[in-house]
């Protein structure tokens, strides 16, 4: 292996090796090709990546468009991906319809949603990706849906509080635990890195508008499971702000603004990075060669001297402003 492979390349390489579907493999290979340092020493590897990409494309074309691309695979976008899971009619589609611009179908009858569908939920100046999904029951989980669930950053179990909530929580929860998932409401960065079954999850108790506050209190007392309860109404919007900020915390990411020397701060499109990310990680996100080319950076932010000079290894904080000098 030639030296100087970037952390992004290695991350994508790991993702490629763990990929379960053609779509995931293709996504990871394309990322590897983007992230690989472009010089003579990597010519051979670049060629190899291109060959593997075209081979997968060919395989997919041969299998036919419906089976080839996994329609249950939703590529991630924004600050993080939250997949909504629940029994029929609990309001998963309504939640996505109320919080995002996605054209999902909300219906009084069950099974209106056949495939996962993403929508972007504005939270402060970033966006959280919500994924609507077809319903699960103890008897039936749509084939392919476990792939969607496994890929999620956060799993949101959605229940309808107006219809035997405790039973619904138990049934939804056990569908996932029977498939070896260990759900916890710990933020993503506090999960045990050795435990591949563990997932960050939250319990969205929907249709708050149909019950009295006492019913929610009673549910909190009676529920003895490990998940945090977030009561909301997808139709009135009550509780959605609190849900958004809790999801943001659980995603364990920070947002960072960039500016070019001598220009104003770009407030329109912050970069989101994992908590603990450094200037080098930001640089690699901005442009694949930037972490190699950069000489130093200046940072503005809480607890910093204005425009303080920093090196690649400097950890970033939420809302820092970074100016990279190359
Ligand atoms: N009163 C009330 N009705 C809701 C709420 N959320 C969804 N619904 C209704 O519940 C039904 C099922 O909603 P839908 O989003 O299609 O459920 P899904 O099967 O989980 O996607 C629809 O008639 C919605 O209008 C809510 O918060 N309050
Ligand atoms: Mg639906």
In short:
The protein contains 11 helices and 12 strands. The protein has 326 residues and is α/β, with parallel strands linked by helices. The model has no long low-confidence stretch (mean pLDDT 91).
Please specify the SSE layout and strand pairing:
Elements (H helix, E strand, L loop, with lengths): L6 H12 L3 H14 L7 H21 L1 H4 L12 E6 L5 H8 L17 E7 L2 E7 L12 H7 L2 E7 L4 H13 L4 E3 L13 E9 L6 H10 L6 E3 L8 H12 L1 E7 L5 E10 L4 H8 L3 H4 L2 E5 L7 E3 L9 E6 L1
Parallel strand pairs: 1-3, 1-4, 4-6, 5-6, 6-7, 8-12
Antiparallel strand pairs: 2-3, 8-9, 10-11, 10-12
Helix pairs in contact: 1-2, 2-3
Descriptive overview:
There is one protein chain. This protein is α/β, with parallel strands linked by helices and 326 residues long. It has three domains: 7-68, Methane Monooxygenase Hydroxylase, Chain G, domain 1 (Up-down Bundle), CATH 1.20.58; 81-251, P-loop containing nucleotide triphosphate hydrolases (Rossmann fold, 3-Layer(aba) Sandwich); 253-325, Ubiquitin-like (UB roll), CATH 3.10.20. The protein is built from eleven helices and twelve strands. The strands form two sheets. Strands 1, 2, 3, 4, 5, 6 and 7 form a seven-stranded mixed sheet that branches. A hairpin with a 2-residue loop joins strand 2 (117-123) and strand 3. The longest helix has 21 residues, at 43-63. The chain is globular, with a radius of gyration of 22 Å. The relative contact order is 0.11. The mean pLDDT is 91. Guanosine-5'-diphosphate binds at residues 86, 88-94, 106-108, 112-113, 135, 206-207, 209-210, 233-235. Guanosine-5'-diphosphate is lined by residues 86, 88-94, 106-108, 112-113, 135, 206-207, 209-210, 233-235.
